[in-house]
Amino acid sequence: MTHSQHHKPKHCLRQLTEQESLVIHADFDPDEMGCLLVIRKFCQSFAPQTTDAWTHGFFTAESIWGEVNGPMIAHRLMHVLQAMRASRLSVFSFSTPDCPVCSQVLTEHERRLITAIRFVRQGRPEQAALQLLLLCEGNPTEVVMERLQDLSTAFTFARELACPGDLAQAAYQ
């Protein structure tokens, strides 16, 4: 399940909670920022007001990582989300990417997931496992970890085969 912190941009009165921070303070690299945006698009399609935002997630991934790598990374991110959603009992809180105010807010759940992605990509599975344990509320996380490993492999593959014109290519150099 997912829960969007969604307000109309014109009337957005979003205030940070204790567990939230601003995205700019997260020190995410370009790939992690891309993951956050794609995850948010995917989560919009899981929210009660179901949309086709998942398609925008794939288009966003393609614009970030290119025609070859974008869909592969988006596919792996969807698998991570589905595994995480199957493990959690409560809703996954995320900030809507469509509101200029809300999109600047990083929820605790988003932070833990992106941090787990970072740790797996850095070869630090023990630290990733701790983030997943907290994110998944003590429920089994083995499948989520496997999906994170698959995502990490996709980034390695993308780095090795960076296509000219990929916006994230500079991050791989």
Q: What attributes does this structure have?
A:
173 residues; single chain; globular; 4 strands; two-stranded parallel sheet; disordered C terminus; two-stranded antiparallel sheet
Could you characterize what this model shows?
This protein is mainly alpha-helical and 173 residues long. It contains six helices and four strands; from the N terminus they run ββααββαααα. It has helices at residues 30-46, 53-87, 108-121, 125-135, 142-160, 169-172, and strands spanning 2-5, 21-22, 92-95, 105-106. The protein has a two-stranded parallel sheet. The longest helix has 35 residues, at 53-87.
Overall average residue pLDDT: 87
Q: Briefly note the structural class of the backbone.
A: mainly alpha
Oligomer: single chain
Which stretches are low in confidence, meaning pLDDT under 50 for 5 or more residues running?
Answer: 5-9, 164-173
Radius of gyration: 15 Å
Helix amount, in percent?
55-70%
Shape from CA axes? globular
Tally the helices: 6
Separation of the first and last Cα atoms: 37 Å
Side by side, the strands of the main sheet go: 1-3
Number of strands: 4
**Major beta-sheet overview:** 2 strands, parallel
Instruction: Estimate what percentage of residues fall within beta strands.
Output: 5-15%
Task: Write the H/E string, N to C.
Answer: EEHHEEHHHH
